[in-house]
Amino acid sequence: MIPNVAPASADSAEPTTAAVPPRAPRQSSAKKFAGNKLFASPASVAGVAWLAALVAASLTAPLWLPYKTEDQDFTAVLSGPTAAHWLGTDELGRDLLSRIFASAAGTLGTSMITVIVAVGLGTLLAMLAAAAGDRVETVISRVTEVTMSLPGTVIILAVIGAVGTNIPLIMAILGVLISAGMYRVILGQAKSLQSQLYVDAAKVDGVSTMGISLRHVLPGLTNTIVVQSALIFAVGMLIQAGLAFIGFGPPIPEPSWGGMIQGASQNVYNAPWLMVPTGAVLALTVLSANAIGNALGKAPNSTASHLPSAAARRRRTMSVKTAVAAIAATAPTPAGSTAAKNTLSVRNLSVGVDSTGAGNGVRLVTDVSFDVEPGTVLGLVGESGCGKTMTALSLLGLLPSGVSVTGGQILWNGRNLAAATDKDMESVRGREVALISQEPMRALDPMFTVGYQLTAAIRRLRGMGRAEAKAEAVGLLEKVGIVDAARILKTYPHQISGGMAQRVAIALALSGRPRLLVADEPTTALDVTVQAEILSLLRGLVKDTGMSVVMVTHDLGVVADLCDQVAVMYAGEVVENGRTDSILENPRHPYTLALLAADPHANHAADMPERLATINGQVPQPKDWPSTCRFAARCQFAGSACVVPIPLLPSGTGDGLVRCVKADELAVEGLDWVATEVASHHVLNLVETPAVATRTVEKDHA
Fold first, then answer.
1. By three-state DSSP, how is residue 344 classified?
2. Domains of the chain (ranges, CATH numbers)
């Protein structure tokens, strides 16, 4: 299921799901996505075209067929294609073209009976079992297991013997037999959807069990249902043709594909062509149904990875190389940059949504430049939607599908990672540059023990033997502060706490001895005590190993505690960067001033009011970013000089840069402005730090 989320922003953030998400948007999105997948594959397009043409030709057969299905031409018995009979005739001189297309509607229609019964009954039972509890699930599962053990062919033949050759009834019974397997396919996914948080929210809001199943569970099963329907449709046609082949098809002289193939088999030696038309039509129809199922099966569901496929990354690499080379030739070198080994140099990096036929894609990150020297920590700071995570993921070539680097360079040890192929990145990821994600469970597979995952990574990245890798795994866990390492190796990720899981994820990132760590808000999901332990751990790793870190965060306390350099991002741009102490003590951009004014830890002096200052508005969506100063609409210092694009300028504090024409004025007046704003209680929604929200709420209640 694809949950309702806000429009895509430059940063990846936790989606906010309503208690009862509206049904229509989810369904329309799913249908649109399935339609795009269906018509993106040439094979599926051909399959849809063939089935549509076959149905249309069959339904209009009385209007255009040259002969009736029972008309016989004894002058052209067992003939090949002629002007009078385009596909030839059978052993009685009947026109094959007329008989094939006249029987198509019946064959396809009765096959659909199997699909409707199998998918409808199987889905209904799966949703009932998932919603009703273990007791009902146990009963339904036992019944379906018995059904799956029954010999389907024997049951169908017994029905034929009892009621005669009633094709619709036979196909319906076949659907009942197949529904047991369909139930097993759907049940696991339905139970997974029932455990989602938005389903719990719907229960709290009083939505009935049936309402939850129809509004929240069923839309998430759509993709699986459509794929299985296409496959069952093909199976139904083959079984129906097989029954007709052995004499249990429609009564003579009514045509059927299986009966025509059976007649052709009796004349295979003296008229081999007779097998070709009917066999080809049946084969093409089955292949068309399978092609449609395969195309729809490629549509990802809610649990699919956000990462692009290998083919998408190859297309992205080819499209970016030219732009990267052109921009690299003229890219300015930021002050203080160096080409030393293990130094990361990002030059005018731009990231955007891939362009479509409707026009150019939206830019999510624009002309970002910074350096990270060995043994130093760079903090990327800003609100959600400012481009921090997209910038960080681009360093490893792990941008989401549909997003790519559109310009600039990512220089690492003499290589431009922005233009590197996926194969080139295999030697970089894990070995030279590693990722610590915000959620440790994204790095850990719940199906395998911690020891298996850690030793497998060590063996792959370092080429060690099994025993040596296990010893190294114990050492890594001890290095990240896990005392009982031998026991933790035997546990599964769900058996350890969140802080322990984050330590394991850090150990996993260190398994290849990387020289650069990209940490995407690694402490956000942890409690305060564990946050301090993780920060202390990262500080120790930097000091002991000399590695460098790019830390994505919105917590200025983390920046002050851990970072040597800081780059403040707003609306996809770096608005200020430089040494951490210089920026925190003497900020020169209004946005940096606002972040500092909203930090409860920085405003705890006795003469500071309890109410924290914030600024009006919110970060605009990437599609709405102006060509002028992007912060001007929210800035109280904006003037006529801000209605033009503002470049990064020397900030006057060493090697720092700032994107503001009034930086010098703010350097003098900034702290006074902060005090004034705090005193006047300017409080609106800006900062997402929980401590800020808590403090503001407490003040309001007081």
1. strand
2. 39-297 (1.10.3720.10), 310-562 (3.40.50.300), 581-701 (no CATH)
CA nearest to 608, candidates 679, 673, 668: 679
CA neighbours within 13 Å on the CB side: how many for 488? Answer: 26
Are the C-beta atoms of residues 666 and 660 closer than 8 Å to each other?
A: yes
Structure-token pair, residue 402: 């549909």
| Chain segment 187-198, per-residue pLDDT in tens | 999 998 888 878
Spatial contact of 412 and 432, defined as CB atoms under 8 Å apart = yes
Tokens of 130: 């998932």
CA–CA separation, 55 and 83 (whole Å):
24
Q: How high is the mean pLDDT of the chain?
A: 81
Q: How confident is the model at residue 88 (pLDDT cuts 50, 70, 90)?
A: very high
For the chain, how far is it from start to end, CA to CA, in angstroms? 43
Res 293: pLDDT: 84
| Residue pair 493/450 in contact by the 8 Å Cβ criterion | yes
What pTM, to 2 d.p., does this model score? Answer: 0.63
Q: What is the Cα–Cα distance from 572 to 365, expressed in whole angstroms?
A: 4
By C-alpha distance, which of 614, 593, 619 is closest to 696?
Answer: 614
Instruction: Using alpha carbons, list the distances in angstroms from residue 195 to 145, 233, 300.
Output: 25, 31, 19
Cα→Cα distances 400→11, 17, 223, 268, 579, Å: 11, 21, 21, 56, 31
Name the residue among 423, 375, 368 with its Cα closest to residue 395: 368
Q: Are strands 344-353 and 363-372 parallel, antiparallel or unpaired?
A: antiparallel
What are the counts of helices (DSSP H) followed by strands (DSSP E) for the chain?
A: 25, 12
Task: List 536's β-bridge partners, or say none.
Answer: none
pLDDT digits (tens, 9 = 90+) for 453-495: 999 999 999 989 999 999 999 999 998 889 899 999 999 998 9
Higher-scoring residue by pLDDT: 316, 506? 506
Measured in residues, the chain has a length of 702
- Res. 278 pLDDT band, cuts 50 70 90: very high
